Design the sequence.
Protein backbone atom coordinates (compact mmCIF):
# COMPACT_ATOMS: atom_id res chain seq x y z
CA UNK A 1 0.00 0.00 0.00
CA UNK A 2 1.00 3.63 -0.30
CA UNK A 3 2.41 5.13 2.85
CA UNK A 4 3.75 8.50 3.97
CA UNK A 5 7.51 8.59 4.38
CA UNK A 6 9.57 11.37 5.93
CA UNK A 7 12.85 12.69 4.62
CA UNK A 8 14.45 14.34 7.59
CA UNK A 9 17.20 16.13 5.64
CA UNK A 10 14.55 17.98 3.65
CA UNK A 11 12.37 18.98 6.59
CA UNK A 12 12.53 22.70 7.36
CA UNK A 13 10.40 22.45 10.50
CA UNK A 14 7.68 24.76 9.16
CA UNK A 15 4.78 22.67 10.54
CA UNK A 16 2.81 23.18 7.33
CA UNK A 17 2.06 19.43 7.32
CA UNK A 18 0.23 19.95 10.59
CA UNK A 19 -1.60 22.97 9.20
CA UNK A 20 -2.57 20.97 6.12
CA UNK A 21 -3.78 18.06 8.26
CA UNK A 22 -5.82 20.27 10.59
CA UNK A 23 -7.36 22.09 7.64
CA UNK A 24 -8.27 18.89 5.82
CA UNK A 25 -9.98 17.47 8.90
CA UNK A 26 -11.83 20.70 9.74
CA UNK A 27 -15.46 21.39 8.91
CA UNK A 28 -14.76 24.15 6.40
CA UNK A 29 -11.44 22.83 5.00
CA UNK A 30 -10.31 26.44 5.05
CA UNK A 31 -7.19 27.11 7.14
CA UNK A 32 -8.19 30.53 8.41
CA UNK A 33 -11.69 29.45 9.34
CA UNK A 34 -10.43 26.18 10.82
CA UNK A 35 -7.86 27.93 13.00
CA UNK A 36 -9.82 31.05 13.96
CA UNK A 37 -13.51 30.45 13.72
CA UNK A 38 -14.44 26.80 14.07
CA UNK A 39 -15.65 25.85 17.53
CA UNK A 40 -13.42 22.79 17.74
CA UNK A 41 -10.17 22.94 15.89
CA UNK A 42 -9.02 19.44 14.89
CA UNK A 43 -5.79 18.06 16.26
CA UNK A 44 -2.95 17.42 13.81
CA UNK A 45 -2.49 13.74 13.04
CA UNK A 46 1.16 14.20 12.19
CA UNK A 47 3.65 15.50 14.73
CA UNK A 48 6.62 17.67 13.85
CA UNK A 49 9.48 17.15 16.26
CA UNK A 50 12.25 19.72 16.55
CA UNK A 51 15.60 20.01 18.26
CA UNK A 52 17.94 22.95 18.78
CA UNK A 53 15.40 25.51 17.64
CA UNK A 54 14.62 23.69 14.44
CA UNK A 55 18.13 22.79 13.25
CA UNK A 56 16.87 19.22 13.33
CA UNK A 57 13.26 18.41 12.54
CA UNK A 58 11.08 15.61 11.23
CA UNK A 59 7.38 15.05 10.66
CA UNK A 60 6.23 11.77 12.18
CA UNK A 61 2.99 9.99 11.36
CA UNK A 62 1.14 6.66 11.35
CA UNK A 63 2.77 3.79 9.45
CA UNK A 64 -0.54 1.95 8.86
CA UNK A 65 1.25 -1.17 10.09
CA UNK A 66 0.43 -4.64 8.79
CA UNK A 67 0.11 -5.89 12.39
CA UNK A 68 -0.81 -2.69 14.21
CA UNK A 69 -0.02 -2.51 17.92
CA UNK A 70 -2.83 0.03 18.31
CA UNK A 71 -5.37 -2.44 16.91
CA UNK A 72 -4.17 -5.28 19.12
CA UNK A 73 -4.44 -3.15 22.23
CA UNK A 74 -7.73 -1.36 21.44
CA UNK A 75 -10.27 -2.52 24.03
CA UNK A 76 -13.41 -1.39 22.20
CA UNK A 77 -12.68 -2.60 18.68
CA UNK A 78 -12.70 1.01 17.47
CA UNK A 79 -9.46 0.45 15.56
CA UNK A 80 -9.75 -1.79 12.52
CA UNK A 81 -7.57 -2.45 9.51
CA UNK A 82 -9.43 -1.80 6.28
CA UNK A 83 -9.23 -4.00 3.21
CA UNK A 84 -7.13 -1.30 1.50
CA UNK A 85 -4.60 -1.41 4.35
CA UNK A 86 -5.54 1.78 6.16
CA UNK A 87 -5.74 1.56 9.94
CA UNK A 88 -8.71 3.66 11.03
CA UNK A 89 -10.38 4.65 14.29
CA UNK A 90 -14.15 4.59 14.52
CA UNK A 91 -14.50 7.53 16.89
CA UNK A 92 -18.07 6.54 17.76
CA UNK A 93 -16.68 3.34 19.32
CA UNK A 94 -13.60 4.91 20.91
CA UNK A 95 -13.92 5.39 24.68
CA UNK A 96 -10.70 7.36 25.14
CA UNK A 97 -8.83 4.77 27.23
CA UNK A 98 -5.58 5.69 25.45
CA UNK A 99 -4.44 2.08 25.12
CA UNK A 100 -3.47 2.86 21.53
CA UNK A 101 -1.40 5.82 22.76
CA UNK A 102 0.35 3.39 25.10
CA UNK A 103 1.03 0.83 22.39
CA UNK A 104 1.95 2.73 19.23
CA UNK A 105 5.76 2.64 19.00
CA UNK A 106 5.64 5.50 16.50
CA UNK A 107 3.86 7.86 18.89
CA UNK A 108 1.38 8.35 16.09
CA UNK A 109 -1.94 8.30 17.96
CA UNK A 110 -2.93 11.58 19.57
CA UNK A 111 -5.30 12.28 22.42
CA UNK A 112 -8.15 14.62 21.60
CA UNK A 113 -8.89 15.60 25.17
CA UNK A 114 -11.88 17.80 24.36
CA UNK A 115 -13.65 15.00 22.55
CA UNK A 116 -12.03 12.27 24.65
CA UNK A 117 -11.30 10.34 21.49
CA UNK A 118 -8.12 8.99 20.01
CA UNK A 119 -6.99 10.70 16.85
CA UNK A 120 -4.82 9.31 14.07
CA UNK A 121 -3.91 9.58 10.41
CA UNK A 122 -6.57 8.35 7.98
CA UNK A 123 -4.48 9.02 4.85
CA UNK A 124 -7.08 11.64 3.81
CA UNK A 125 -9.82 9.54 2.20
CA UNK A 126 -11.17 12.53 0.25
CA UNK A 127 -7.86 13.27 -1.45
CA UNK A 128 -5.47 11.62 -3.88
CA UNK A 129 -2.47 12.89 -1.96
CA UNK A 130 -2.62 13.25 1.84
CA UNK A 131 -2.88 16.89 2.92
CA UNK A 132 0.39 16.82 4.87
CA UNK A 133 2.29 15.63 1.80
CA UNK A 134 0.68 18.29 -0.41
CA UNK A 135 1.42 20.98 2.14
CA UNK A 136 5.13 20.24 2.46
CA UNK A 137 7.08 22.97 0.65
CA UNK A 138 10.27 20.92 0.34
CA UNK A 139 8.97 17.43 -0.36
CA UNK A 140 10.14 16.20 3.01
CA UNK A 141 7.06 14.01 2.98
CA UNK A 142 6.36 11.59 0.15
CA UNK A 143 3.48 9.24 -0.50
CA UNK A 144 4.74 6.04 -2.08
CA UNK A 145 4.22 2.33 -2.29
CA UNK A 146 6.21 0.66 0.45
CA UNK A 147 6.30 -1.52 3.51
CA UNK B 1 -8.37 -29.06 9.42
CA UNK B 2 -10.83 -28.83 12.27
CA UNK B 3 -10.04 -25.98 14.67
CA UNK B 4 -11.86 -25.59 17.97
CA UNK B 5 -11.42 -22.48 20.09
CA UNK B 6 -12.74 -22.43 23.65
CA UNK B 7 -13.36 -18.85 24.74
CA UNK B 8 -14.46 -15.93 22.65
CA UNK B 9 -12.60 -12.82 23.71
CA UNK B 10 -9.64 -11.03 22.24
CA UNK B 11 -7.26 -14.03 22.19
CA UNK B 12 -9.84 -15.99 20.21
CA UNK B 13 -10.24 -13.11 17.77
CA UNK B 14 -6.48 -12.88 17.26
CA UNK B 15 -6.42 -16.62 16.61
CA UNK B 16 -9.36 -16.60 14.18
CA UNK B 17 -7.73 -13.89 12.08
CA UNK B 18 -4.38 -15.71 12.16
CA UNK B 19 -5.89 -19.07 11.18
CA UNK B 20 -7.79 -17.53 8.29
CA UNK B 21 -4.64 -15.75 7.10
CA UNK B 22 -3.12 -19.23 6.59
CA UNK B 23 -6.08 -21.52 6.04
CA UNK B 24 -9.22 -20.48 4.19
CA UNK B 25 -10.67 -23.98 4.11
CA UNK B 26 -10.53 -25.34 7.65
CA UNK B 27 -13.52 -25.43 9.97
CA UNK B 28 -13.37 -23.05 12.93
CA UNK B 29 -15.72 -23.54 15.88
CA UNK B 30 -15.74 -21.13 18.80
CA UNK B 31 -17.23 -22.33 22.07
CA UNK B 32 -18.03 -19.75 24.75
CA UNK B 33 -19.72 -20.03 28.11
CA UNK B 34 -20.95 -16.47 27.68
CA UNK B 35 -24.04 -15.68 25.66
CA UNK B 36 -22.49 -12.68 23.89
CA UNK B 37 -20.25 -12.53 20.86
CA UNK B 38 -16.85 -10.95 21.52
CA UNK B 39 -17.14 -7.70 23.44
CA UNK B 40 -14.78 -5.15 24.88
CA UNK B 41 -14.41 -6.72 28.30
CA UNK B 42 -12.65 -3.71 29.86
CA UNK B 43 -15.66 -1.64 28.76
CA UNK B 44 -17.89 -3.11 31.46
CA UNK B 45 -17.07 -0.26 33.85
CA UNK B 46 -18.02 2.24 31.15
CA UNK B 47 -21.28 0.33 30.70
CA UNK B 48 -21.96 0.32 34.44
CA UNK B 49 -21.25 4.04 34.74
CA UNK B 50 -23.47 4.85 31.77
CA UNK B 51 -20.56 6.20 29.71
CA UNK B 52 -21.53 3.81 26.91
CA UNK B 53 -24.67 1.79 26.18
CA UNK B 54 -25.00 -1.90 25.35
CA UNK B 55 -24.74 -0.93 21.68
CA UNK B 56 -21.14 0.07 22.26
CA UNK B 57 -20.12 -3.29 23.70
CA UNK B 58 -19.50 -5.49 20.61
CA UNK B 59 -15.80 -5.72 19.85
CA UNK B 60 -16.13 -6.79 16.24
CA UNK B 61 -17.90 -5.64 13.10
CA UNK B 62 -21.28 -7.39 12.89
CA UNK B 63 -20.31 -9.60 9.95
CA UNK B 64 -17.03 -10.81 11.46
CA UNK B 65 -18.02 -14.38 12.29
CA UNK B 66 -19.76 -14.85 8.94
CA UNK B 67 -16.90 -13.34 7.03
CA UNK B 68 -14.35 -15.55 8.80
CA UNK B 69 -16.74 -18.52 8.54
CA UNK B 70 -16.78 -19.30 12.25
CA UNK B 71 -19.34 -21.61 13.86
CA UNK B 72 -20.39 -20.10 17.17
CA UNK B 73 -21.49 -22.19 20.12
CA UNK B 74 -22.48 -19.60 22.72
CA UNK B 75 -23.65 -20.23 26.30
CA UNK B 76 -21.85 -23.56 26.12
CA UNK B 77 -19.54 -24.57 28.94
CA UNK B 78 -16.67 -26.99 28.52
CA UNK B 79 -16.49 -29.68 31.19
CA UNK B 80 -13.32 -31.45 30.15
CA UNK B 81 -10.94 -32.27 27.33
CA UNK B 82 -10.23 -35.83 26.19
CA UNK B 83 -6.73 -35.46 24.83
CA UNK B 84 -6.59 -39.05 23.56
CA UNK B 85 -9.84 -39.10 21.62
CA UNK B 86 -9.23 -35.40 20.78
CA UNK B 87 -12.67 -34.29 21.88
CA UNK B 88 -13.96 -31.35 23.91
CA UNK B 89 -16.75 -32.40 26.29
CA UNK B 90 -19.48 -29.98 27.28
CA UNK B 91 -21.40 -29.81 30.55
CA UNK B 92 -24.49 -30.82 28.57
CA UNK B 93 -22.91 -34.20 27.85
CA UNK B 94 -22.38 -33.39 24.20
CA UNK B 95 -18.90 -33.26 22.71
CA UNK B 96 -16.97 -31.93 19.76
CA UNK B 97 -13.93 -33.39 17.96
CA UNK B 98 -10.87 -31.26 17.15
CA UNK B 99 -7.66 -31.47 15.21
CA UNK B 100 -6.22 -28.33 16.78
CA UNK B 101 -7.59 -26.92 20.01
CA UNK B 102 -7.08 -23.43 21.43
CA UNK B 103 -7.92 -22.81 25.07
CA UNK B 104 -8.61 -19.11 25.52
CA UNK B 105 -10.97 -19.31 28.46
CA UNK B 106 -9.60 -16.26 30.26
CA UNK B 107 -9.90 -15.90 34.00
CA UNK B 108 -12.38 -16.60 36.75
CA UNK B 109 -12.85 -14.01 39.46
CA UNK B 110 -11.30 -15.15 42.71
CA UNK B 111 -13.80 -15.30 45.56
CA UNK B 112 -12.11 -15.66 48.93
CA UNK B 113 -14.08 -17.36 51.66
CA UNK B 114 -15.49 -14.41 53.55
CA UNK B 115 -17.79 -15.09 56.47
CA UNK B 116 -21.39 -14.21 55.72
CA UNK B 117 -20.90 -14.03 51.97
CA UNK B 118 -22.72 -17.17 50.90
CA UNK B 119 -26.04 -16.14 52.43
CA UNK B 120 -26.24 -12.67 50.89
CA UNK B 121 -27.95 -11.60 47.68
CA UNK B 122 -26.03 -8.56 46.67
CA UNK B 123 -22.50 -9.84 46.35
CA UNK B 124 -21.11 -9.36 42.86
CA UNK B 125 -17.99 -10.02 40.88
CA UNK B 126 -17.01 -7.70 38.06
CA UNK B 127 -15.36 -9.37 35.09
CA UNK B 128 -18.11 -9.97 32.53
CA UNK B 129 -20.77 -8.07 30.62
CA UNK B 130 -23.41 -10.01 32.57
CA UNK B 131 -21.74 -9.02 35.86
CA UNK B 132 -22.02 -5.36 34.88
CA UNK B 133 -25.59 -5.82 33.65
CA UNK B 134 -26.63 -7.48 36.91
CA UNK B 135 -25.10 -4.69 38.96
CA UNK B 136 -26.69 -2.07 36.74
CA UNK B 137 -30.08 -3.77 36.98
CA UNK B 138 -30.14 -3.39 40.77
CA UNK B 139 -28.37 -0.03 40.81
CA UNK B 140 -31.56 1.92 41.55
CA UNK B 141 -31.68 0.12 44.89
CA UNK B 142 -28.02 0.61 45.77
CA UNK B 143 -27.27 3.33 48.28
CA UNK B 144 -23.85 2.36 49.53
CA UNK B 145 -21.44 -0.13 48.02
CA UNK B 146 -18.20 -1.62 49.25
CA UNK B 147 -15.64 -2.74 46.70
CA UNK B 148 -13.20 -5.31 48.01
CA UNK B 149 -9.90 -4.88 46.17
CA UNK B 150 -8.13 -1.74 44.96
CA UNK B 151 -6.68 -3.11 41.75
CA UNK B 152 -7.63 -2.07 38.23
CA UNK B 153 -10.94 -3.94 38.24
CA UNK B 154 -11.95 -2.77 41.71
CA UNK B 155 -11.18 0.87 41.03
CA UNK B 156 -12.98 0.83 37.69
CA UNK B 157 -16.02 -0.78 39.34
CA UNK B 158 -15.87 1.90 42.05
CA UNK B 159 -15.67 4.63 39.45
CA UNK B 160 -18.66 3.19 37.56
CA UNK B 161 -20.76 3.08 40.74
CA UNK B 162 -19.65 6.58 41.67
CA UNK B 163 -20.81 7.84 38.26
CA UNK B 164 -24.23 6.44 39.19
CA UNK B 165 -24.09 8.65 42.31
CA UNK B 166 -23.62 5.75 44.68
CA UNK B 167 -21.61 6.09 47.82
CA UNK B 168 -18.58 3.81 47.41
CA UNK B 169 -15.83 2.57 49.72
CA UNK B 170 -12.83 0.67 48.36
CA UNK B 171 -11.04 -1.68 50.76
CA UNK B 172 -7.50 -2.69 49.80
CA UNK B 173 -5.28 -5.07 51.70
CA UNK B 174 -1.99 -3.57 50.48
CA UNK B 175 -0.74 -0.19 51.64
CA UNK B 176 -1.86 1.44 48.40
CA UNK B 177 -4.17 0.99 45.44
CA UNK B 178 -3.00 -0.40 42.09
CA UNK B 179 -0.08 -2.11 43.78
CA UNK B 180 0.51 -4.65 41.02
CA UNK B 181 0.58 -2.41 37.95
CA UNK B 182 1.74 0.89 39.37
CA UNK B 183 4.23 2.20 41.92
CA UNK B 184 3.59 4.09 45.13
CA UNK B 185 3.44 7.73 43.86
CA UNK B 186 1.14 6.75 40.99
CA UNK B 187 -1.12 4.81 43.36
CA UNK B 188 -1.21 7.79 45.70
CA UNK B 189 -2.18 10.19 42.93
CA UNK B 190 -4.99 7.89 41.79
CA UNK B 191 -6.22 7.38 45.37
CA UNK B 192 -6.26 11.14 45.90
CA UNK B 193 -8.28 11.60 42.71
CA UNK B 194 -10.72 8.90 43.79
CA UNK B 195 -11.17 10.57 47.19
CA UNK B 196 -11.59 13.99 45.58
CA UNK B 197 -14.50 12.47 43.68
CA UNK B 198 -16.13 11.14 46.81
CA UNK B 199 -14.87 7.56 46.83
CA UNK B 200 -13.55 6.45 50.18
CA UNK B 201 -10.32 4.47 49.84
CA UNK B 202 -9.22 2.39 52.83
CA UNK B 203 -5.85 0.63 52.63
CA UNK B 204 -4.08 -1.96 54.80
CA UNK B 205 -7.38 -3.44 55.83
CA UNK B 206 -9.69 -6.16 54.64
CA UNK B 207 -13.25 -7.39 54.98
CA UNK B 208 -13.55 -10.25 57.45
CA UNK B 209 -17.34 -10.49 57.60
CA UNK B 210 -20.29 -9.45 55.50
CA UNK B 211 -23.02 -8.48 57.93
CA UNK B 212 -26.73 -8.63 57.32
CA UNK B 213 -30.11 -10.06 58.00
CA UNK B 214 -31.14 -12.98 55.88
CA UNK B 215 -30.17 -12.24 52.30
CA UNK B 216 -29.88 -8.49 52.92
CA UNK B 217 -26.49 -6.86 53.50
CA UNK B 218 -26.21 -4.22 56.20
CA UNK B 219 -22.47 -3.65 56.09
CA UNK B 220 -19.02 -5.16 56.33
CA UNK B 221 -16.75 -5.60 59.30
CA UNK B 222 -13.05 -4.99 58.64
CA UNK B 223 -10.04 -6.68 60.16
CA UNK B 224 -9.32 -3.46 62.04
CA UNK B 225 -12.74 -3.78 63.67
CA UNK B 226 -14.27 -0.92 61.71
CA UNK B 227 -17.79 -1.38 60.43
CA UNK B 228 -18.71 0.09 57.03
CA UNK B 229 -22.44 0.22 56.39
CA UNK B 230 -23.41 -0.84 52.87
CA UNK B 231 -26.08 -2.72 50.94
CA UNK B 232 -23.94 -4.09 48.13
CA UNK B 233 -20.51 -5.73 47.93
CA UNK B 234 -18.37 -6.05 44.81
CA UNK B 235 -15.54 -8.56 45.11
CA UNK B 236 -12.62 -7.56 42.86
CA UNK B 237 -9.63 -9.28 44.40
CA UNK B 238 -8.29 -10.69 41.20
CA UNK B 239 -8.77 -13.37 38.59
CA UNK B 240 -7.44 -16.90 38.32
CA UNK B 241 -6.78 -18.64 35.02
CA UNK B 242 -9.98 -20.50 34.08
CA UNK B 243 -8.36 -23.90 33.64
CA UNK B 244 -10.27 -26.02 36.15
CA UNK B 245 -11.78 -28.14 33.37
CA UNK B 246 -8.31 -29.49 32.53
CA UNK B 247 -8.00 -31.50 35.74
CA UNK B 248 -6.90 -35.00 34.85
CA UNK B 249 -6.50 -34.12 31.15
CA UNK B 250 -2.72 -34.35 31.19
CA UNK B 251 -2.33 -30.75 30.05
CA UNK B 252 0.26 -29.09 32.28
CA UNK B 253 -1.27 -26.33 34.37
CA UNK B 254 0.91 -24.37 36.73
CA UNK B 255 -0.58 -20.98 37.60
CA UNK B 256 -1.95 -21.03 34.07
CA UNK B 257 -1.73 -23.42 31.12
CA UNK B 258 1.99 -23.68 30.48
CA UNK B 259 2.82 -22.89 26.84
CA UNK B 260 5.91 -22.62 24.65
CA UNK B 261 6.73 -19.74 22.32
CA UNK B 262 4.22 -21.07 19.78
CA UNK B 263 1.56 -21.12 22.53
CA UNK B 264 1.44 -24.90 22.42
CA UNK B 265 0.74 -26.63 25.73
CA UNK B 266 2.43 -29.75 27.04
CA UNK B 267 0.02 -31.78 24.89
CA UNK B 268 0.54 -31.59 21.12
CA UNK B 269 -2.26 -29.88 19.15
CA UNK B 270 -3.56 -28.15 22.27
CA UNK B 271 -2.72 -24.47 22.49
CA UNK B 272 -3.54 -21.75 25.01
CA UNK B 273 -3.59 -17.96 24.81
CA UNK B 274 -4.65 -14.97 26.87
CA UNK B 275 -5.33 -14.77 30.60
CA UNK B 276 -5.49 -18.56 30.95
CA UNK B 277 -2.02 -19.12 29.52
CA UNK B 278 1.31 -19.04 31.24
CA UNK B 279 3.84 -17.95 28.65
CA UNK B 280 7.36 -16.61 28.68
CA UNK B 281 7.99 -13.18 30.14
CA UNK B 282 9.67 -10.49 28.04
CA UNK B 283 12.48 -9.81 30.52
CA UNK B 284 13.21 -13.22 31.94
CA UNK B 285 12.80 -16.69 30.57
CA UNK B 286 10.37 -17.46 33.35
CA UNK B 287 6.79 -18.18 32.52
CA UNK B 288 3.93 -16.37 34.16
CA UNK B 289 0.33 -15.44 33.43
CA UNK B 290 0.06 -11.98 31.84
CA UNK B 291 -3.61 -11.08 32.11
CA UNK B 292 -3.66 -8.05 29.88
CA UNK B 293 -5.65 -7.33 26.73
CA UNK B 294 -2.89 -6.66 24.13
CA UNK B 295 -0.88 -9.70 25.16
CA UNK B 296 -3.99 -11.85 24.79
CA UNK B 297 -4.39 -10.64 21.21
CA UNK B 298 -0.73 -11.27 20.42
CA UNK B 299 -0.78 -14.75 21.96
CA UNK B 300 -3.98 -15.58 20.09
CA UNK B 301 -2.35 -14.44 16.87
CA UNK B 302 0.72 -16.61 17.49
CA UNK B 303 -1.37 -19.61 18.53
CA UNK B 304 -3.63 -19.34 15.50
CA UNK B 305 -0.65 -19.08 13.19
CA UNK B 306 0.95 -22.17 14.74
CA UNK B 307 -2.32 -24.12 14.66
CA UNK B 308 -2.57 -23.44 10.93
CA UNK B 309 0.92 -24.81 10.43
CA UNK B 310 2.93 -21.60 10.12
CA UNK B 311 5.15 -19.91 12.66
CA UNK B 312 5.33 -16.52 14.31
CA UNK B 313 7.80 -15.73 17.09
CA UNK B 314 6.82 -14.60 20.56
CA UNK B 315 8.90 -11.85 22.07
CA UNK B 316 7.57 -12.52 25.56
CA UNK B 317 4.78 -10.96 27.56
CA UNK B 318 5.25 -7.31 28.42
CA UNK B 319 2.96 -5.93 31.12
CA UNK B 320 1.17 -2.82 29.97
CA UNK B 321 -1.87 -0.92 31.27
CA UNK B 322 -3.59 2.25 30.20
CA UNK B 323 -6.46 3.32 32.36
CA UNK B 324 -8.19 6.54 33.31
CA UNK B 325 -9.66 7.44 36.66
CA UNK B 326 -11.83 10.54 36.68
CA UNK B 327 -9.98 11.95 33.68
CA UNK B 328 -6.53 11.34 35.12
CA UNK B 329 -4.74 9.21 32.53
CA UNK B 330 -2.34 6.57 33.74
CA UNK B 331 -0.08 4.30 31.73
CA UNK B 332 2.37 1.76 33.07
CA UNK B 333 4.57 -0.67 31.22
CA UNK B 334 7.31 -3.17 31.95
CA UNK B 335 9.22 -2.97 35.22
CA UNK B 336 7.56 -0.20 37.21
CA UNK B 337 8.36 -1.16 40.74
CA UNK B 338 11.62 -3.13 40.86
CA UNK B 339 12.06 -5.25 43.95
CA UNK B 340 15.74 -4.37 44.00
CA UNK B 341 15.86 -0.66 43.04
CA UNK B 342 19.64 -0.37 43.36
CA UNK B 343 19.95 -2.66 40.35
CA UNK B 344 18.22 -0.03 38.23
CA UNK B 345 18.61 3.59 37.20
CA UNK B 346 15.32 5.26 38.05
CA UNK B 347 14.30 8.73 36.89
CA UNK B 348 11.21 10.46 38.27
CA UNK B 349 9.27 13.68 37.93
CA UNK B 350 6.40 14.40 40.30
CA UNK B 351 3.91 17.27 40.36
CA UNK B 352 1.21 15.91 42.65
CA UNK B 353 -0.87 19.06 42.72
CA UNK B 354 -1.48 18.75 39.02
CA UNK B 355 -1.75 14.97 38.95
CA UNK B 356 1.43 14.66 36.89
CA UNK B 357 3.98 11.92 37.38
CA UNK B 358 6.60 10.31 35.21
CA UNK B 359 8.92 7.48 36.08
CA UNK B 360 11.44 5.87 33.78
CA UNK B 361 13.28 2.70 34.73
CA UNK B 362 16.56 1.73 33.05
CA UNK B 363 18.55 -1.40 33.73
CA UNK B 364 22.27 -1.30 34.45
CA UNK B 365 23.04 -1.86 30.77
CA UNK B 366 21.20 1.36 29.93
CA UNK B 367 18.15 -0.25 28.39
CA UNK B 368 14.71 1.12 29.07
CA UNK B 369 12.76 -1.55 30.96
CA UNK B 370 9.77 0.28 32.39
CA UNK B 371 7.77 3.48 32.51
CA UNK B 372 4.92 5.01 34.50
CA UNK B 373 3.12 8.05 33.15
CA UNK B 374 0.34 9.84 34.98
CA UNK B 375 -1.44 12.89 33.59
CA UNK B 376 0.34 13.65 30.36
CA UNK B 377 0.62 10.25 28.70
CA UNK B 378 1.04 11.51 25.15
CA UNK B 379 3.22 9.34 22.92
CA UNK B 380 3.79 6.79 25.69
CA UNK B 381 4.07 4.15 22.98
CA UNK B 382 7.50 5.47 22.03
CA UNK B 383 8.68 4.06 25.36
CA UNK B 384 6.95 0.76 24.62
CA UNK B 385 8.83 0.58 21.33
CA UNK B 386 12.16 1.36 23.02
CA UNK B 387 11.55 -1.38 25.58
CA UNK B 388 10.55 -3.94 22.94
CA UNK B 389 13.52 -3.12 20.71
CA UNK B 390 15.90 -3.10 23.67
CA UNK B 391 17.32 0.25 22.61
CA UNK B 392 20.15 1.64 24.69
CA UNK B 393 18.83 4.93 26.01
CA UNK B 394 21.76 6.28 28.06
CA UNK B 395 22.84 8.72 25.31
CA UNK B 396 19.55 10.58 25.68
CA UNK B 397 18.83 9.69 29.30
CA UNK B 398 18.33 13.33 30.29
CA UNK B 399 15.52 13.83 27.78
CA UNK B 400 13.46 10.81 28.83
CA UNK B 401 11.55 12.67 31.52
CA UNK B 402 10.62 15.68 29.43
CA UNK B 403 7.12 15.81 27.92
CA UNK B 404 8.71 16.74 24.56
CA UNK B 405 10.71 13.53 24.41
CA UNK B 406 10.49 12.02 20.95
CA UNK B 407 12.30 10.48 18.01
CA UNK B 408 14.31 13.65 17.51
CA UNK B 409 16.33 12.67 20.60
CA UNK B 410 17.08 9.22 19.20
CA UNK B 411 19.89 8.29 16.86
CA UNK B 412 19.07 9.39 13.25
CA UNK B 413 19.27 5.77 12.11
CA UNK B 414 16.22 4.90 14.22
CA UNK B 415 14.24 7.81 12.75
CA UNK B 416 15.19 6.72 9.22
CA UNK B 417 14.20 3.17 9.92
CA UNK B 418 10.88 4.15 11.45
CA UNK B 419 9.73 6.98 9.20
CA UNK B 420 11.88 6.89 6.06
CA UNK B 421 11.69 4.56 3.12
CA UNK B 422 14.56 2.22 2.52
CA UNK B 423 16.56 3.11 -0.58
CA UNK B 424 14.83 6.43 -0.93
CA UNK B 425 16.66 9.54 0.10
CA UNK B 426 16.98 13.22 -0.46
CA UNK B 427 17.60 15.05 -2.75
CA UNK B 428 14.97 13.46 -4.94
CA UNK B 429 14.49 13.96 -8.63
CA UNK B 430 11.58 16.25 -9.44
CA UNK B 431 9.77 13.69 -11.61
CA UNK B 432 9.20 11.17 -8.87
CA UNK B 433 5.45 11.04 -9.34
CA UNK B 434 4.98 12.45 -5.89
CA UNK B 435 3.10 15.43 -7.21
CA UNK B 436 3.48 17.32 -3.97
CA UNK B 437 5.26 20.51 -3.11
CA UNK B 438 6.40 23.30 -5.42
Sequence:
Amino acid sequence: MKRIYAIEEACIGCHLCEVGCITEHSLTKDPVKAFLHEAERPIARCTVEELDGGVLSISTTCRHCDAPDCLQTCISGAIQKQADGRVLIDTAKCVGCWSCVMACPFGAVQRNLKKKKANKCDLCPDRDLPACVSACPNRALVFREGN
Amino acid sequence: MNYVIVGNSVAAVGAIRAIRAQDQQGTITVVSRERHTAYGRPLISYLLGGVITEKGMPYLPENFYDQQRVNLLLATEVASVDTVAKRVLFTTGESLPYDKLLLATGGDPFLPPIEGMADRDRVYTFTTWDDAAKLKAVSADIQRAVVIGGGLIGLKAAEGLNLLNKSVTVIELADRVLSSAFDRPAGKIVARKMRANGIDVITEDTVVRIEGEGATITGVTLKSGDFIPCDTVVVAIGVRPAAGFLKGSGVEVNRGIVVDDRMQSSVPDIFAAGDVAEARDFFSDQKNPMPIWPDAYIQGDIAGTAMAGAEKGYEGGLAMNSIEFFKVSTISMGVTNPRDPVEYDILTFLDSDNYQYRKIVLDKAGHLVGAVLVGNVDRAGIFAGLIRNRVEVTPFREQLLTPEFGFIHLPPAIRKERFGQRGYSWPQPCFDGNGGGH
In short: Chain B has nine helices and 26 strands. Chain B has a mean pLDDT of 94. The first helix of chain B runs from residue 10 to 22. Chain B touches chain A through 62 residues (CB under 8 Å).
